[in-house]
TrEMBL record:
Its EC number is 5.1.1.3. This is Glutamate racemase. It comes from Marinicrinis lubricantis. Belongs to the aspartate/glutamate racemases family. It holds the Pfam family Asp_Glu_race. InterPro entries: Asp/Glu/hydantoin_racemase, Asp/Glu_race, Asp/Glu_racemase_AS_1, Glu_race. One of its GO terms (molecular function) is glutamate racemase activity. It catalyses: L-glutamate = D-glutamate. Provides the (R)-glutamate required for cell wall biosynthesis. It is an enzyme of class 5 (isomerase).
Length: 258
């Protein structure tokens, strides 16, 4: 059986990329809700319905686990989905905890970049408040990066002006770690690095999520000897045309180079 991956759009490819590293012999189903992307600026209840519909569709395809490769979707619906299905539901959340742990060494603040909806959610705010040194955590919504990614606009001419404008109110020199709290954001890591001091670390929850998937499947004796095959769905329709498949392959290749 395949491992299901779900995101509002292409951002979940950054998590799938890590899963392919840690579980190269599994087969995968990747579902992008391209009809409703972006989630991060929409009303919570509307997004919840999109997530539940997508999860129902994925479950009917037959998966042994579902990775919610979207920080916003995890915060809104992961708990509800775990009650509904008997296969593991693995979510992702901004990697704030490991970022805050760098305080002892760096003595610099942490900046969390995410969508507006993720940053408003109680789950995120509870996570931050539960941590020692939580007062060193700042946050900034960058919804424009989601739109840029979904339109495959990764060139510096489009990205850098947007980032400079959004970061203009911050003193970037006060940060030691930047948390990429949306799965779309790792595509822009190199652009972000140009705007922060060289010693700033950029982290996301993708690696930890992929390792968690492997740990859970090992514990359930559900590791399989597949081929790394991936089938793609876009809002319930399987993507078969060569142009679309080539785009997904190009995204994975981009991540190999980061």
């Amino acid at each position: 059986m395949r491992i299901g991956f779900f995101d509002s759009g292409i951002g979940g490819i950054t998590v799938l990329h890590q899963a392919l590293r840690f579980l190269p012999n599994e087969d995968y189903l990747f579902y992008a809700d391209t009809s409703h992307v972006p989630y991060g600026e929409k009303p919570k209840e509307e997004v919840r319905e999109y997530i539940l519909d997508a999860a129902d569709f994925i479950a009917k395809q037959g998966v042994k686990a579902l990775v919610i490769a979207c920080n916003t979707a995890t915060s809104i619906a992961a708990a509800e989905l775990r009650q509904k299905y008997d296969f593991p539901i693995i979510g992702i959340e901004p990697a704030v905890k490991p970022a805050v742990q760098t305080w002892e060494q760096k003595r610099k603040k942490v900046l969390v970049l995410a969508t507006s909806l993720t940053l408003r959610e109680e789950k995120f705010n509870h996570l931050v408040k539960s941590l020692e040194h939580h007062d060193i955590v700042d946050s900034l919504p960058l919804p424009g990066l989601v739109s840029l990614a979904e339109n495959f606009q990764f060139n510096k001419e489009n990205v850098i002006p947007y980032l400079k404008e959004q970061l203009s109110s911050l003193d970037v020199n006060q940060y030691g770690t930047v948390v990429l709290g949306c799965t779309h954001f790792p595509f822009f890591t190199n652009h972000l690095k140009r705007l922060f001091p060289e010693d700033v670390d950029f982290i996301s929850g993708s690696i930890g999520t992929a390792k968690n998937v492997r740990r859970i499947l090992e514990a359930r004796n559900q590791l399989e000897d597949g081929t790394g095959d991936i089938v793609y769905y876009q809002s319930g329709v399987r993507a078969k045309d060569q142009d679309t498949l080539a785009k997904y392959n190009r995204l994975l290749a981009m991540l190999d180079e980061l």
